[in-house]
Design brief:
- The protein is of the alpha/beta class.
- The protein is built from 6 helices and 12 strands.
- A 7-stranded mixed beta sheet has the order 5-4-3-9-10-12-11.
- It is elongated, with a radius of gyration of 27 Å.
- The model has no long low-confidence stretch (mean pLDDT 92).
Length: 292
């Protein structure tokens, strides 16, 4: 009788252990499904967010813009409305890395001074036929010194150069610092800029994971209050599959002041590459999206 009771207790214990293990496994399965579903929703939301940003960056058809290439033949070259630079009285070139044909071209075409900014590569580029002024300083959203490097805002730099009342052409390629620098720009400076070529860069965290930030849309929305998007070119040195529908993590956008741009509502902007576009890295395959 005692043996039978022990057997029943042992059997009951085994059953309870088995049921507990089954329950724990079911909980793990459930939590795994929930985690996968949450991750899927997060990925879908990120794609939708990127799609919305890409839609915001679609160029409009400008009736009065004649695109010309300024700068290098490949990386460092940007398309701008050459015929809409007539009012420009000063140029600003941010992130030059020791070369700046864009700044030199603007200076020689308009016979104006172009201020160049870079605190990481302080090599001063030559411009024998123009007037360029190099500043060993970087751009940001505040005035500060980081690891011995000076940073300041576009607003302050324009003021220090005595250009607060001048019409400006601007180019900025600063490896991700553009988002905060542009977001901090006051209305008055944005209203001074006739054209602006921006290379945007997708940000990464400390683990080299792509950051999906609301800041991207906030910057573009703010800029579009003052500018029309005249042209977009994707940097083929940064082709990637993980940021769809963006084909690259770096892309160049031409912003044309609404004071100058004449939008043709009867037609869409020509999609795809412009004849003056060129790959940033000619030795690697291009990855421009298909014309929309």
């Amino acid at each position: 009788m005692i043996r039978r009771r022990f057997a029943l207790v042992a059997a009951g214990t085994v059953i309870l252990v088995i049921l507990g293990a089954v329950a724990q496994n079911q909980v793990r399965v459930y939590r795994g499904r929930q985690a996968r579903a949450a991750a899927m929703r997060q990925r879908q939301a990120a794609v939708q967010q990127r799609q919305a940003l890409l839609e915001m960056l679609q160029p409009v058809a400008l009736a009065n813009c004649q695109l010309e290439r300024f700068g290098e033949a490949h990386d460092g070259g940007y398309l701008m409305c050459g015929n809409l630079l007539e009012r420009v009285q000063a140029g600003y070139s941010y992130g030059i890395s020791g070369y700046d044909k864009w700044g030199c071209d603007i200076s020689t075409k308009r016979d104006v001074a172009v201020h160049q900014y870079d605190c990481f590569n302080t090599t001063e580029p030559a411009c024998p036929d123009g007037e360029t002024v190099f500043h060993a300083e970087c751009v940001g959203d505040t005035t500060e010194t980081i690891e011995g490097r000076a940073f300041d805002t576009i607003r302050n730099q324009v003021a220090k150069n005595g250009d607060t009342s001048k019409r400006i052409a601007l180019k900025i390629d600063v490896e991700g610092a553009e988002w905060d620098a542009l977001l901090s720009l006051p209305d008055g400076v944005l209203e001074q800029i006739d054209q602006m070529a921006v290379e945007f860069h997708w940000l990464q965290d400390e683990k080299k994971q792509w950051i999906q930030s609301d800041k991207y849309a906030l910057v573009v929305q703010r800029l579009k209050q003052f500018f029309e998007v005249g042209h977009v070119h994707f940097n083929n040195a940064s082709c990637i599959e993980g940021l769809a529908p963006f084909p690259t993590w770096a892309y160049e956008v031409l912003f044309v002041s609404r004071q100058l741009a004449v939008v043709d509502p009867s037609r869409k902007a020509a999609g795809g590459l412009h004849p003056l576009d060129a790959p940033n890295a000619p030795s690697v395959p291009d990855c421009q999206p298909r014309a929309r």
